[in-house]
What does this fold into?
Amino acid sequence: MAHVRLPRMLADLAGVDRTLEVEATNAGEVVSALLERHPELRVHLFDESGWLRPNVLLFADGEGIRDREQLDRPVGPEGEVVILQSVAGGAPEA
Amino acid sequence: MEMVRIAIGTVKGAFFAEGSGDRWEFGEPAFPGWEVTAFGSDSDGNPLLATGSSWYGTSIHRRGDDGAWSQLPEGPAYPEGLGRKLNQIWTLERFGDELWAGVDEAGLFKSSDNGEKWEAVEGLNEHPTREHWQPGFGGLCAHRLLSDEEHRRMWVGISAVGVFRSEDGGETWAPFNEGVEKAAPDERAPDIGFCVHGLAADPAQPDTIWRQDHMGVYRTADGGDHWERIEEGLPATFGFPVVRDAGSGRIFVMPLEGGENRTTGGRLSPYLSTDGGDSWQPAGKGLPEYPVYTGVLRGAMVGDGAGTIAFGTTAGTLHVSEDAGDSWFNLDLTLPRILAVAVETA
It folds into this structure.
C-alpha cells in the first residue's frame, strides 16, 4: 500500500486523517485513487489549466513532481505521495 | 428583543454569533484557513457559504440538519481551456427555486437543482463587451445581484464594469449606467467602465435601486435607465456597501475616504437616509468613540429587513443595530479581516 499525506486544510475539508492508504504503484495512481475516494478535493488540487494549482506542491517518495509526465514516477510499496501548500505564514504543520 | 443570528466570513474562516443587545454567545469557528466570501441558503432553506483560498480555489458548502457542513459536489467552474479562472464566489442568491452565484473572474452561474449542478450564464459571461472589461483593485468580479422575479428582471453589479440588466430572467443582458461617473474610461467601450461596489433594492418598487460606486452614491427610479447622484450630507462619497432596511425604509452606506485612508476622520459610522437617499446623516449612537481607521467591505454590511443591521470591519470588529440604526452594540470580539456578513432574526 502507498500512502498519501494531505495538508491540514484539505484533510479537514474531507473529514479524514491527514495520511491515507491507497492501492497504487506510481504518483498518478495515488492521486487518482485519492480523488476517486474524495472527488470533492479535485477542485482544490487542480485548476482550469487541468494541472495542479500554482501553490500546491506534490512530492513522490521525496522528489518534487513538476508536470504531468512525472506522474508515472513509481512509488514504492510503502512509499508516500505528499501534497503540500506553498509555504506561507508560520504554521509548523502546513 | 428577538434573538439575532450572525454569520461572519473572514479571510481566515467563518464565525458565528447569536444574541441580542449586549448579550452575545459565539459558536465554534468553521473553515479555519479558508476565506469565507459569501453566505446564502438553498431551496430548502439550508445555509450555504462560499470559500476561497490562494492555495485551493473556491467551493460552496451546505450545512445540514445535523449542523455539519458538506461541500457541494460540483460548484461553479469555468471550463478547461477557456483561459478564465474562477478566483472567488462573491455572492450567493436564491431566486425562486434557482440558486445564483456571482464570481471573480466576473461571471454568473446558476443552478436549477438546488446546487447539484451549476451552469454558466452565457448571456452575461460572454457579453460582447467582455473583451473590454477591466478589473478594479479588488478584482474583476460580479458581486451584487438583484431580481424582480415578477417581471423576470435582474441586475448585476460588476467591478469595474458597471450594472447590467436582464429583461428575460437572465438570458440576455445589457449595461445600464447613464448618469454615473466612469472609473475606467475606454473609448472603445463607452457603455462600460463603471466601478459599482454595492446595490440595494426596494422589493415593493423594484425599479428603485440604490448604488454605491467607487465614484459616488447614486439612485435610479426607472430600473437603471437613468441614475442620479444622492450625496447630500455625506462626508465622503466613496464606499463599498449600500443596504436598505425594508421595515423602516432607511438606506445605509459606509462613507470611506478612499484607498489613502478609510473611515472619515477616524470615526466609524455608517450614514443613513430616511428620505430615500435625498439626504444623509450619521447613523445613531453607540459606535466607538475612540479613533478608528478601518474599512467596511462590499459584503460586510447587511440587514434582515426588519430593523437589524450588522456590519464588520477590515479590522475584524462587528457592530449591530436592532433598531434600524438608532443605536449600536459593539460585539466583544476581534476577528480576522471581515469579508461577508449574514444576519437573521430568530
